[in-house]
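As a warm-up, study this chain.
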Amino acid sequence: MITFWNSLSNRWLYLVGALFPGGLIGFALYLQYVKYQDPCPLCMVQRVIFIAIAVVFLVAMAHGPKRTGERVYAALISLLSLSGIAVAGRHIWIQNLPKDEVPACGPGLDYMLETMPFSNVVKQLIHGSGECAEKGWTFLTLGIPEWSLLCYVGLGVWAILIAVRKKG
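Now compare it with the structure written out below.
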């Protein structure tokens, strides 16, 4: 298995790294438009981070970097993954608050974008709101933010493994 891993081109590994968050976004859109589970503000932030990770993987695939570039891409993806872990962790925390401590629901994203400066919109989104406390879809007793957190960890580790592997 290690021989197979080392024999693969980094471009293929970067493609896999891009397809995974792409599949996650596809599943999120399925939940939103087929199962009618509207995303909360923290879910939207997590989607943007997954898209950013996919874009960095795609740029790395197109670039085909050497050792230093691989490390730069791994660092970028790791930083994005860490920010995703922080947002998912906040989401998990909000979902586990007692009912009386859940923050109030905020205005919709469209309204905020029309009436507030963008920096305030970002702060509001990252802070989360009462709608973030709702638990929607689950699989194996884990909800969307728990699965997102695990996926962020996996994507960060994947990028680091690409950067430190020995090529055959």
